[in-house]
Amino acid sequence: MEVKVQSRDIEKALRNLKKKLQLDGVFGELKKRRFYEKPSVKKKRKQLEAQKWKRKLLKRTRPSGSGPRPGYESNDRTPVRTTPAAVETK
């Protein structure tokens, strides 16, 4: 990673460096590695991050962010359950 200092403006160069490091995720990685994380806790955290990422992508793909949530009826807040018998009768 490279940051050029122009006209002796070191403070601006430091801001640029911090911004680049932030965008690369270096600070988050340092924070995670500061203490030991058990493998079971690590697995759980990664699963939660994956779920969060999927929800975020779903939210972006919906045109206006409105409408029923996937897997739910439009006016009902209970999940739609499809059983093999229900699928055959449709």
Describe the structure.
The chain has 90 residues and is mostly helical. The chain has a domain of 58 residues. It is 58% helix and 0% strand. The chain contains four helices and no strands. The longest helix is centred in the middle third of the chain and has 23 residues. The mean pLDDT is 82.
**What oligomeric state is this?**
single chain
Output the helix-strand order.
HHHH
Q: What structural class is derived from the secondary structure elements?
A: mainly alpha
State which percent range the strand residues make up.
under 5%
Question: If helices are DSSP runs of H or I spanning 4 or more residues, what is the number of helices?
Answer: 4
Shape call:
elongated
Query: Regions with pLDDT < 50 over 5+ consecutive residues?
Result: none
- Span from first to last CA? 59 Å
Give the integer mean of the pLDDT values.
Answer: 82
Largest sheet: none
Helix content: 55-70%
Radius of gyration, CA atoms, in whole angstroms: 23 Å
The counted number of beta strands is: 0
Q: What attributes does this structure have?
A:
90 residues, 4 helices, 0% strand, mainly alpha
In short:
This protein has 90 residues and is mainly α. The chain is 58% helix and 0% strand.
Topology (SSEs and partners):
Blueprint: H1 10-24, H2 26-33, H3 39-61, H4 84-89
